[in-house]
Specification:
Blueprint (H helix, E strand, L loop, with lengths): L2 H8 L4 H16 L35 H14 L4 E9 L9 E5 L4 E6 L27 E11 L2 E8 L14 E4 L11 E3 L1 H11 L3 E6 L2
Parallel strand pairs: 1-8, 6-7
Antiparallel strand pairs: 1-2, 2-3, 4-5, 4-8, 5-6
Helix pairs in contact: 1-2
């Protein structure tokens, strides 16, 4: 019972007041629960649900503008003198295996006239090559400047030999049998060769064989 109501009932002395007291006490007995502190039902706090975050694609490539490719070809042509200066091939190993990263630049027109996917060695990296070698039997890619040589028909069909122009970096390219050739596969790895799709390979070799500069970059 509420103490405040009992105090009021104790001050009623008349018979009428006694009657009221009885009614009041009855009311207090029947409604005693109304004096209790009301129960509060606590609702559970909702747990915030994080929206799913998509992992960034491992194969995303920044677009290489033609103007950047042409500028790189011009800089390489100034540094490395080769017999055939009409074209320069730029291979950008900063891009992934799945990207078009081989570019043939027409130095007279200042334009990219052919672009293609091109392989790298599996031992140099799965998606992006990062481990290079000039040592025979390592099965790794090498970078730097090369000069194209003669075309021939060999184990992989129409192919082309190359020579490395940088001592200690890629000068063992011919000894390692690093060549341009094709291979029927959606994505091809190599042991250091530059493999392009069949529909590109013959046209590429016919354009650049016989002394064209090939510059393979990796920043």
């Amino acid at each position: 019972m509420c103490p405040r109501l009992y105090k009021i009932a104790g001050n009623l002395n008349t018979m009428y007041d006694q009657y009221l007291k009885i009614l009041l006490v009855a009311a207090l007995l029947s409604g005693a629960s109304s004096c209790r502190r009301p129960e509060v039902t606590l609702k559970p706090r909702p747990i915030p649900v994080k929206s799913p975050v998509r992992p960034p694609s491992r194969h995303r490539d920044a677009t290489t503008p033609d103007v950047a490719v042409i500028a790189l070809a011009e800089a390489a042509a100034l540094e490395f003198r080769v017999p055939n200066r009409r074209h320069v091939v730029v291979i950008d190993y900063d891009r992934s295996l799945f990207a078009e990263r081989l570019f043939v630049v027409d130095m007279k027109k200042k334009a990219v006239i052919l672009r293609s996917r091109v392989s790298h060695a599996m031992k140099s990296g799965k998606i992006f090559p990062s481990d290079f070698s000039n040592i025979p039997e390592t099965g790794k890619s090498c970078v730097g400047a090369f000069r194209t040589g003669e075309s021939y028909h060999g184990r992989f069909g129409y192919a082309m030999r190359i020579d490395g122009l940088e001592w200690g970096v890629n000068d063992n390219a011919r000894r390692r049998a690093i060549v341009f050739h094709d291979y029927e596969a959606p994505v091809a790895y190599s042991k250091g060769c530059f493999i392009t799709p069949p529909k590109v390979n013959r046209r590429l070799i016919d354009i650049i064989k016989g002394g064209t500069l090939v510059y393979v970059r990796k920043s």
